[in-house]
Sequence to fold (131 residues):
Amino acid sequence: MRTLHRGVQVSRDCWHRKKVARSFAAATFVFALFLLNNSTARATALTEETRAALIKSAEESCFDGQSKQEANKSRKPEQLHAFCYCFAEKLSYTMTMEKAIAAFGKPFAPTPEEERVMHAVFDNCWQVNVK
Fold:
């Protein structure tokens, strides 16, 4: 268990999920800014180039956050990179141009369905790449 501000306790996995979700949200924000600056947000599906940029940004944000976690200090960087790539790559398939633009400049507030998907992807990628 980990104690957060206001005395709230959460399990380590739950806490890691929230950190990864925030990293993904930050990457989405950066990605949306990229889209708006380049005026490429006209199609629903992500292009391969755009998807690759999202994955790279999300993986870097995830790795940065995960590598700072005390619980991950003993893990090899390769494990964390593999986990973060898996998480970013799988979640990229749930992203559309419209979602990226809609998320721009707003606090990260996933819907219950998006949260369920993120937890499932997190658990799968963690099992495959870290444990």
About this structure: The mean pLDDT is 78. The chain has one domain: 2-129.
